[in-house]
């Protein structure tokens, strides 16, 4: 079956939405948003307003402005989450570089004997080589000028600075569980040495990529779900186990991000930022992101 639909003008998009029951009170404003944001980017925010998702018919009283408000909320949510992932990424990168460089060598990341999967390790090196090849960082250029005869990649504190967060999360996840230093990294972030942190980083990396590509984050399904620690030792870090309905929602990832912030940026109040954002957009369905009604009362959130 071939796709046969043609391009539709903004005026026709507005007419179509009205025919389907969507209230558009300010047509020039709607035309502006459809011209600058695009219909298909707004479609993800229009979908919850529909009661017939096959024929795309809208619930009585649904307004175009509701979708725009959700879009604005999502913009601010992505900006907030992206700023937190930066804090986490920089801290994880730092601990990974220096802990294993001191325990092993500045080129530990090149040694296949330190990793579980040779294939995954080879994929990582190929990815980091691409980053090195295209890097315009002065410290990489300077290294090439100074040490052009050294066939090795630059040491970890240079090479891993240009690796993506996704590549770093996979690199950490591939380290042999018994390797000296791996457990120390988990200890630093107050995470059990079992395989929790690697899964957390994969979840955070997925959310970071959603934000970086300006994709919809509100009510998004997160496929890389973080494991809940069964026995959290610090009382102030405890939070209720994530239910099945919450596992693939943003709330589960925000919980582990807030957990990591306890070590990385203790004074940072993610709860305050979220409460302010929700107050600015009171119509937002926080349950669609997996937030339980009592989330602010749980120690992890109440303490900061």
TrEMBL record:
Protein name as catalogued: Abi family protein
Organism: Hymenobacter edaphi
InterPro entries: Abi_system_AbiD/AbiF-like (IPR011664)
One Pfam family named in its UniProt record: Abi_2
